[in-house]
Amino acid sequence: MRTILLTLCLAVFYSGMPTSDARAQIIEPEPSLDLVRKSRIRTFPEVRERDAILIREGYRVFSFLRNQGWPRLFEIFPTPLVLITDDSQYLFGHPAPPEGYFLTRQTHRVFKHVYGVERSMDCGGSVDTRPLYGAPTIIMPSLECADQNPTEWIFDYVRGAFRLYSYSRNELLRVARLDVPFPDPENEWKQTFPFPGRDPDVIKAFDELANYLAKTFWEVDADEKRELLRGYAPKRARLREALDALSGEHSNDDFFRYMCWSDGLAHYVAYSGFEQIKSTKRTVRDLEGFVNYTTFVSRDVRAPYTRFLREGVGEEITAEDIMVVGALTAGIVDQIVPDWRQFALERGVWLEDLMARAVVESP
Fold it and tell me: What residues have CB less than 8 Å from 361, skipping those under 6 apart?
């Protein structure tokens, strides 16, 4: 009976934002007798109220993406999450928590089981999404570890949740078709890949593409945008040629293609989700350092999207630079192709394929 009630409550929570009265009726999952008998429960510091508020808000903001047409978006819920604090790490909603984690009793609602253990992961890392303990999981540092304000943390959660969604859409099979190191369990291949970001020819071709994408993304005149769209293919081809000329054991261009699609798409999706939010709860607004979503989008999120209008990369192409190029590409596609989300995550479809369709469908 308790399982049925929980399922119904979660359905109410994710199907839109229920009223305050409806939310008050949502009950937390309680430990099963089997867990108690296995001694998986002990006294362990519970998640701080502020962290619980942030996680609930992350759920809420991500729920706005359901209005954008992503297929079967909520099949990934509940989203497994590891929250790393200065002295502990908490595992939320994982289907198979490993030995060593203890089920904790929570007074702050998070709508899923929470397991705690003394910290062993790096406190100073950034948001990551990868298989952990047998299931794709968001790994996030707390505010103190990440040195972020609450709004930045929520934005990163939404990015991570979308990355979890893309995992659920057979992402590893997509990557396996590319000439890149097959993803390792720790996802370190992204950081260790020898991308030629300091090569002058690569930087020049990248700057041309980035500047072009920024101009096209921000162009509001339909005729001008249509004319600009024709310039994508040759600029992308020049970058591909520069990258291929320096490829070694693996393809530099395949790495670039994947990172644009992976990190760039997630960043744009989070940006477009934040644009929909007009208000938030007082408990969130009262958090120290919280930045209004409208201000955050216009001041912080859009800043990288406009940078390439004014300046080039400089000495080296960074992972953030590639992410922004991917985000701008996804944004242009979103402006032109109404149903692009229906096939954006299909195997063999990358952002350049979507751009080719945008060129054809441009009014």
Answer: 336, 337
Token duo for residue 187: 């996802």
Calculate the average pLDDT of the chain.
Answer: 84
Residue 170: CB atoms within 10 Å: 13
DSSP letter assigned to residue 261: I
Question: What are the CB-based long-range contacts (under 8 Å, 24+) for 153-157?
Answer: 153/54, 154/54, 154/57, 154/58, 154/61, 155/270, 155/274, 155/296, 155/301, 156/126, 156/127, 157/54, 157/55, 157/58, 157/61, 157/62, 157/127
Complete edge-to-edge strand list for the sheet that includes strand 135-141: 102-103, 114-118, 88-92, 81-84, 135-141, 128-132
pLDDT digits (tens, 9 = 90+) for 248-306: 999 999 999 999 999 999 999 999 989 888 788 899 999 999 999 999 999 899 888 99
The amino acid sitting at 210 is: A
Higher pLDDT, 6 or 124: 124
User: What is the distance between the alpha carbons of residues 60 and 18, in angstroms, rounded to a whole number?
Assistant: 10
Please report, to the nearest 10 degrees, the dihedral formed by the alpha carbons of residues 153, 58, 96, 26 taken in order: 140
Position 15 scores a pLDDT of: 38
| DSSP class of 127 | -
> What is the model's pTM?
0.85
3 state DSSP class of 100: coil
**pLDDT score, position 34:** 53
CA-to-CA separations, 2 to 8, 9, 27, in angstroms, rounded? 10, 11, 9
C-beta separation of 46 from 115 below 8 A = no
